[in-house]
Design brief:
Layout lengths: L7 H22 L6 E2 L8 E2 H22 L10 E3 L2 E4 L5 H14 L3 H4 L1 H24 L5 H29 L3 H22 L6 H12 L1 H5 L6 H23 L5 H23 L1
Antiparallel strand pairs: 1-2, 3-4
Helix pairs in contact: 1-2, 1-5, 2-3, 2-5, 3-5, 3-6, 5-6, 6-7, 6-10, 7-8, 7-10, 8-10, 10-11
Length: 280
Amino acid sequence: MYIPQPRYEQIVTMALIGAIGLATVFLIDSSPVNARFDLGGDLPEISLSWVLIGTLIASAAISADWIRRSHPHPHDWIVRSFGPLRNITPALWVLPGLSVAAAYAFWRLFNPVLGGTAFLAALVLTAGTLFVILTVQYFSLHRQPEIHVPAQILLHIIGYVIAFSIFSAIYYTRYRTLYSATMVAIVAAVLVYALLNIQQRPISVGVAFVAGLGIAELMWALNYWQTTFLLAGVVLVTVLYVVIGLLGYACIGQLNRRLLIEYGVLGALIIGGVAYLSLQ
């Protein structure tokens, strides 16, 4: 059985670009030239670092689409067109892009404790994660179930780790609920869209954003709950897992009462355990 292989030299190059770009951001963070843009009122400031992170996210997304186009098998099930944008794969943009944002947002929280070790960990994990995501996304496009199914499972696991990192970082900022909930909604929505479409369970952008808004509602409660940012991240990623699981089965017409009970019990147990730990 012939199994097409990606061009690993391209993937390694993209991973290194991501790590080098993130290193540049960390250097700017530690220097006085990190310009900040005050939007007025109580809106969060936007620093030059986040502008550069946005550039790295766009670069990672473009790389994912470029690598996808080299795959020899037809993959119309994941190709989309939005207005003037034709034959693009936004579902494959999400994990590479968010992996960069997650590494920056999460590991910088540990700088006061770990110092340069936190930044080094962020750089190594960014390069490694980007390499794995871009490679596994390529294999997720294969026709053979024995190839694409394990690839899709691994992408889901990576997606939940990324979600935990970003949700934890958002909660740590303690921004007003209006802003923190908005950020959670956007991240949750794009992950719902990406992970379900990668699994060949088509879902529209509109449905994904409704799901994201539903998950973001939790921030209203979490901001009044005295817990750690890591436990808050666990709660949010648990709800994300339940929502993606139920929507996935609904997409293929297999959602039933048993699945509702199973996911409901699992979510309740994990959130209950987090609530117990918060009270200790």
